[in-house]
Amino acid sequence: MEISPSFDLGFDDPSTQGTEVACKETDVPVTIQEEVVVISSNDDSGDSLDKIYAWIEMPTRTPAKGKETVVEDVLVTSGGSNSCTPIPEAHKKRLVKPSQNQKSPFLGCSKNETASKYANEVYDRLCAYGGETKDEINKSKIIDDGSFFVYVQDLADSVRHGAWLSNSTCELAICVLAPDMAKQKKHVMPLIITTKLRKATCIHDRVVTKAFKMNSENRLDHKEQVMFPVLQDLTPDIKDFNGHYYLIVLNLKAERFEVMDSLRAKGNRGLLKDYRSIIGTIKYLWAKNYSDSTINIETLHTEHIDTPMQKTTYNCGFFILKSIELWNGRKMIAAINPYDMPTIRKQCTLKWLEWVDNTIQWQELLF
Known about the structure:
Elements: E1 20-22, E2 29-31, H1 49-52, E3 54-57, E4 73-76, H2 117-127, E5 141-144, E6 149-151, H3 152-159, H4 167-183, E7 186-188, H5 191-197, H6 206-212, E8 225-233, E9 243-251, E10 256-260, H7 269-289, E11 302-305, H8 316-326, H9 341-353, H10 362-366
Parallel strand pairs: 7-8, 10-11
Antiparallel strand pairs: 1-2, 3-4, 5-6, 8-9, 9-10
């Protein structure tokens, strides 16, 4: 009598637990202990499928003598089958790029600053003076254009690591930057101007009047940006002066005032009070001197530009100098990295000494 084959695979028969089977790859008899995996189901769809799949470590096969232990990772699917089902890929979210006016003005402009071997040598030579040194060279002029000069000690004490940029050295740096900035339709006011703009008597001051007077050689309304470096005393109530530099920009192309501060965030009370006073005076002087111009700045709003923040309390002067140089009215044409400040100090030192209007033979002093 022919016996029909049985199609019972033993999946539901508990007696099959502990059954000895053969591994196709190694033909090694092993014992598999059945492990129950409980997966809770719900009505979720989409991303919830990722929760249904789980990796579990299957029991170790007991190999025959001389064979290595083989451990398999088996993917358990929702159907309970130990088949080699591919791992489902995670849902890929669509990348949404910010609009142009939402982008940071500092993105995509990173740059590593470097100083030449010669710049390093000049910097080291200069920094050997100043401070508590008693060398007579400290009293010598090292930069002089005929109307403005800086002594060796002042320059050395401004550029050395950890030093605060003096107002005279900052004024000199602005003079060096001015010609190149003019080519970019940027006019940089002397540092002394904003100091005077805080006083009510500034409208009669000769220096301020000259800076704002409209004539054929001084048409501020023909510029794209008028920049006002600011030196503010952060502790006016005490005798010791604790100065901090920041920058105010009259951006005529974008039709707004801009404030850049590497130390204080938007909304800082001391910053607000100071720049509002200065901007108010700028608007008054503009109305007085440029009444015939088609550009009216009376209604322009003020925007705080987020800038890289300094990591120390003494690099603010170099931050505003780099902002003057790199801000094009919309973004920085290169990054200002706070960690590049030691290198920037060396670059600036050589640039100021090699200024085309410098009449001093500074190499004879340092070498």
